[in-house]
Amino acid sequence: MKDYLPKCGELTKKFGEVYPAGHTNARVKFNATEASIFAERAEGSHVWDMDGNEYIEYVNAYGPLLLGHRHPRWIDALKDHLDHNTTVYGSGIIYGENDIHLGQKLVKHIPCAEAVKLCTTGTEAVQTAIRIARAYSGKDKILRFGSFYHGWVDNIYINKIDDEYNEEDGPLYKVLPKDNPYYPDGVSPWVRNESFVIPYNNFEMLEKTIEKYNDKIGMCLVEPMASDVFCMHPLPGYLERMRELCTKYNIVLCFDEVITGFRLGLGGVQEYLGVIPDICTLGKSLGGGLPVAAVVGKKEFMNIFQEKNVVSGGTFNGFSLGITASLAAISLYEELADTLYSTLEAVTDRLIGGMHEICKKYNVAFTTTECTKGGIFYAFFGIDNGRIKRLTDVSMVSGADYEFYDRFWQFMQEEGILIMFGARWFIGGGHTMEDIEKTLTVFEMSLQKTLEYYEEKKK
Ligand SMILES: Cc1ncc(COP(=O)(O)O)c(C=O)c1O
User: What atom of ligand 1 comes closest to residue 228's alpha carbon?
Assistant: First the structure.
């Protein structure tokens, strides 16, 4: 491997002394190389590290950078704000006029939105949504779906399905062995009783669970196009059936659009698929690169804060710099809508198409899955199911060769393409066709090197 990260390597050691777990962690490999990347600057889709290496990046900070890094108009809005305003006033005590403009924009664009509650992270938005649902319905249990991610807090973190559930307990998730990466230490054992976790896209299981436990289930929480689960799409009629059952049994339907919000157009997946939840969570792209998140929903549900003793605090809820950032981001999504979304789609299409051509040329088993229009896709080596535009069954992507991907990931980084673990790629508004062509050149080169590496290993 190339030694191209001497300074980053030194910084990695110093960093490890003060941050033993980094800034965010799960039991997966976050970095391609032993040295972490320490960035000096960023622009659009490009990042420069402290060793002077330039990268085209597909990490996208896990999704918020729909406009790319440092969109000049977004930066101007922040600068203008800081010229005469402060960053935070005192949540609930002092407001700004922009708070109203932001709320009005959300109500205008998000189909279920008649009212808004702001917070700072997606995890918090989900917790707020849970409170709304429990208070509104008077029922405690959450119905969730296997492998779906809604943040890192205890009550929603563990998302594996119990394939041995018994009829009495219902489909609770399995008590995983302690060494399983999905059951981290420190998680309360009591949260096991808070959720029913069932397989997605299984009509029978959905119907049976709701029919049987509707007196306990207060909320159905779902990512309507599961960007976190290999971009799994709902089967035709699945979300509609969910909507129907939730209405029938007084269960609050919450779409988690923390990732998909603004990525599939201004109205998110709910607008795209035409199924309207009671409430939904937003985050990531909502702030355009600063931490702004929200629950939005119909007034009937959102009014619960006044009608009952529901509390949702947060020192930084609705902080003024975040409001400006969010307002500027949404104004840009509106203004650029004609080009932003079509470019995102075209660029993603060319990249995925090009990857398949290259893999075909080298006879490499390769599969991709994608979220329609959203600039999110997964690339798997070792499975030969082609380009899946609408994944509805995760077994189609089981058996991927992640070891091969890890090696390939290192070669890509060495040649200036930064991707992330777990086969997921994010495209942002900063990506150009030129970036994509360069990426495809490096993709081919890295694939060749990875194949050579394994050939060599066999000898
Ligand atoms: C669908 C979904 N919901 C919630 C969250 C949590 O958001 P945050 O990381 O801002 O807390 C995430 C984060 O990736 C997510 O993908």
Answer: 16
Q: Are residues 254 and 224 in the same domain?
A: yes
Residue 45 CA, ligand 1 centroid: distance in Å: 22
Pocket flag, ligand 1, residue 122 (CB < 6 Å): yes
Q: Does 215 share its domain with 103?
A: yes
283 lines ligand 1 (CB under 6 A): yes
Q: Do 255 and 363 sit in the same domain of this protein?
A: no
Phi-psi region of 361 (alpha: psi -120 to 50; beta: other; left: phi over 0): alpha
**What CATH number has the domain bearing residue 11?**
3.90.1150.10
Residue 100 and residue 48 share a domain: no
Ligand 1 centroid – CA 282 distance (Å): 9
| pLDDT digits 0-9 by tens, 153-183 | 999 988 776 555 555 555 555 555 556 656 6
Q: Is 121 in the pocket of ligand 1 (CB under 6 A)?
A: yes
Strand segments (E) across 292-418? 293-297, 366-371, 376-381, 386-388, 417-418
DSSP annotation of 395: G
62 lines ligand 1 (CB under 6 A): yes
Question: Considering only CA atoms, which of 365, 137, 337, 366 is closest in space to residue 252?
Answer: 137
**Residue 296 lies in domain:** 88-318
d(CA 428, CA 63): 8
- Res. 188 pLDDT band, cuts 50 70 90: confident
Number of domains composing the chain = 2
Whether residues 356 and 385 fall in one domain: yes
Q: Compute the distance from residue 263 Cα to the ligand 1 centre, in Å.
A: 14
* pLDDT at residue 422, rounded to an integer: 86
Distance 161 CA to ligand 1 centre (A): 20
Q: Is 257 in the pocket of ligand 1 (CB under 6 A)?
A: no
User: Is pLDDT of 281 > 60?
Assistant: yes
